[in-house]
Amino acid sequence: DVQLQASGGGLVQPGGSLRLSCAASGFPFGSSDMSWARQAPGKEPEWVSTIFSGGVPTVYAASVKGRFTISRDNAKNMLYLQMNSLKPENTAVYYCATGRTGSANRGQGTQVTVSS
């Protein structure tokens, strides 16, 4: 079974940074495109970023481009999301997912709260 466990969320002030991690198992991670998605309170889930299986290319939603960086370590079956210059509107539960849309096999998320 596909298992995805996100971690690294927390409370951060506006302008701060967080690095999210996602531990993957149960599928061929190294040959899988991977994505991050998020869901803010009262809103629909939103795709954030995708990284192809080999590490390139990477694709970002316009709202996070230039501030967020997706990466992966295929040797460790790990996916990452470095989030800089965080804004209150980035508050959401962040999920990692298989594929390019952020909607497949979405694992347990991690809460990110940006507030002063």
Uncertain segments are none
Q: Indicate the radius of gyration in whole angstroms.
A: 13 Å
Q: Overall pLDDT, averaged?
A: 96
Strand order of the largest sheet: 2-10-9-4-5-6
Largest sheet: 6 strands, mixed
Q: Per DSSP, what share of the residues sits in E-state strands of 2 or more residues?
A: over 45%
Task: Describe the structure in your own words.
- This protein is an all-beta fold.
- It has no helices and 10 strands.
- The strands form 2 sheets. Strands 2-10-9-4-5-6 form a 6-stranded mixed beta sheet, with no helix packed on it. The protein has a 4-stranded antiparallel beta sheet with strand order 1-3-8-7, with no helix packed on it.
- The radius of gyration is 13 Å and the shape is globular.
Essential attributes:
single chain; 116 residues; mainly beta; 6-stranded mixed beta sheet; 4-stranded antiparallel beta sheet; 47% strand; globular
List the topology elements.
Blueprint: E1 3-7, E2 10-12, E3 18-25, E4 34-39, E5 46-51, E6 58-60, E7 68-73, E8 78-83, E9 92-98, E10 110-114
Parallel strand pairs: 2-10
Antiparallel strand pairs: 1-3, 3-8, 4-5, 4-9, 5-6, 7-8, 9-10
Summarize this entry quickly.
The protein has 116 residues and is mainly β. It is 0% helix and 47% strand. Strand 5 and strand 6 (58-60) form a beta hairpin.
